[in-house]
Amino acid sequence: DWHDVRVSRRIYRDGNSEYFLNKTLCRLKDIHSLFADTGVGRAAYSIMEQGKIDLILSSRPEDRRSVFEEAAGITKYKTQKKEALRKLEATDANLLRIGDIIKEVKRQIGSLQRQAGKARRYQALHADLQVLDTHFSHRKLKGLESELGDCSAQIARISETEQSTRNEINERETKLAGARRELDAADERIADGRSKLQLLENEIASHRHRIEFNEKHGVELRQWIERSRREIESAESKLREQNAEIESANALVEETARLLQRKNEELKQLTESVARQREVFRVSDQKLRDTQMSLSKDELRHSAVAEDLRDLRERRDATRRDSETARSRITVAQADHKQLNAQIANARATTETERQTVERLLARVRSQEDTLRQNRSALTDLEKKLAAIDRTIAENESRHEVLRQLNEEGEGLAQGSQALLKSKEFKFVGALAAQLNVSQELVPAIEAALGRNLHALVLRDTARAAEIISHLNRHQLGQAVLVLEGIDHRDRPTKHLPPTAIDWATNKVQAPETLAPLVRRLLDHVALFKNLGDALIAIRKDPEIAAATLSGEFISHTGVLFGGSGKVRKDSLLERKARIGAIATELTKLRREQASVEQQRVSLESQIAAATVILEKTVVSHQEAQFAQTASASKISELEREENSAEQELESLESDCSTLERQIAAADEQIRGLEEQTAQLEKRITEARSEISFVETQRNKELQEEEDATARLTELRIAATTDEQKHQNLLAQRAPMLARQTELTELISTRRADIENYEARLFTQAVEDESARNAIERQTLDCGWREAEIGKLVTERTRRLEKINSDEAELRSTRDRLSELQEKRGMRSVRQTQLQLQIEHLAEHVMERYRVDLRAFQPDEPAHEKVLHAQMKRLTRESVVAVAGRGSEEEIAAATA
Asked: Which terminus of the chain has a smaller tally of CB atoms within 10 A, N or C?
């Protein structure tokens, strides 16, 4: 028992509907039964739309009969009668069907009995099969469990072997690591021995270079000795010739002296007058000869000194050229050494730069990887957010589309209004509710104020209103509410708004200009209140107004109160329109957010793509920088080796150059001494020539005087004079010969002294060469010992390497054996798993088929033997019957033949 009734309908997307009476689920039939005899049903007479009375009066009697039956209250019973007749017809049809079923069952009884027999035989056979199958499965289970135990034991043994193999591998790896450390130590000893060997070879090369230089210098000294010996031989031959000439001259002088002595005694008295003049002439002549002899000696000495000076200069020039060559080589070596130093410095700077570049690129790679990771994480978050927005948009679009379709189909409107909207014959602007805009909180109040008017359709052509109503009546489509545009609605006088009211309803409803007068008429003097108490107070004060509350209560101008529910109906037209607007606004906002997020995602993807490309380029640059750094380090090592070699060569060249410079200094000292001697000799020669010229002038003068003095004695002294002249000539000739003899003797002694000096120098060089050869022999022996030691170390390293290789081969074989054990254990594990699966499958199969726990099953051997014996008897019987059947068939065939 309720004071009011609320009928609700819930529509689903699949087209199904649910009906509620006061929120209680019911059938549509229950709703029809409730409204029967009340006059408010679908085709009731309580509500008459415009033109309905004329339609009833002008309709046929059959059509008017329904109205009278409804008014008389017999429509309910006619409906019940129709339902009872329909049920009786269904019952008769069911009886006929039952009779048919009985006939069919009787016809099938024989077949069913045969099937029942087969079923009983099946049950017996199934019971025997259960016994046999459970016993067989139990035996199979035991066999599988036994095999599973063996497999588990094998797996355990294999695992133990595998563990021992792993321990063996660890021991071998430890031993191999120790062997590798010993191999590295051997490599270090080999490198140390080779460096010492290289040092010894460099010293041997230096000694050999010294020996070559001494040999070259010795050849020059021997050439000088040979040239001095040739000069000595030439001087000795000249000396012998000079001695022979001197001996011949001495014999002539002695002979001439004896003759002259006899004549002088004869002419003694004759020569006393000219003795003094002749003595002066003799002194002058002697002086001239002495001077000439000294000049000849000085000229010879000057020639010898000039020749020595020329030879010494040539040797000095040769040594200087060698020194200049050595200096040029030193300069080149120093330039090469400086260049190598510069290259090493540049290479180290380049290596340091490349190392910094590698570190910088590595830091950049890590930074870019972090940035890329953050961007990808942000992209994932954006994609999740975008997916959530897409889901929300899809949900809202779906809700919006459903609500829009409901609005377009006129869902919630009267049945006739829905039919007119679906009809293509008439054109409507739409439902009145679809043309109004009301805020969400005022929807219950406006719907309560408008009431059934919300179901009205706005008609474009008011002239077709009668045709539309006729169409509804003719096709029994239900009632409809139509809004006729163009009808003049006069506004009533404005009243004062009650102080407790929110506002007039007409001020809260937005409608098109063509419908605004109608809305003002429908909501004329309807005030909006927050609650029903304020509305009742305002109605008591001013009964001519109507009141609507925010919770949906409505008090009409006549004082009728409509209400009873504080919640908005779910099929509210205005609420649906407001929800459509709210969903559209939310969709707009979501699409903006979606576009913004999509733009952020596209931007982030482009950043990720660019960052990926940059990261790949940075990684390539980092790898190239690492390769360049490694190449620079190798280049530095090579340049350092070249620098060490260049330093050794430079030291050798500087030693040779210092030796050559000392030789040049000694030669310069000798040249200065010879040049001083040459200058002194030239000075003496010049003085001697001047003196000779003076003496010759004086001698000529004295000779002239003598000739003049002796002219008077010419006749007397012709013979004496001739002999004397001959004697004097011989004496004059002998004196230069003696001087030349002395010069040649001195030249020979000088050259022999030079030869002794050269031989002493050769001896010194020979001593140096012998010392160098001894050092070379010692260092060669040391090199041989070093090479032998290096050979032993290399042999030892080879032996260790072979041992390491053999250990590695054994380790590989052990690892292969471990792999085989792991593979075997894997196969055993697979087999164990297969057995476990077979056991589980067998147990599940028996449990599923016979409801027997195979693991707890206790074999019943007597029952098993009994069933087995029975089955054997059955098989024997069936085979006998089969043989008998074949024999009877053969007899029948023979009789027929």
From this structure: N
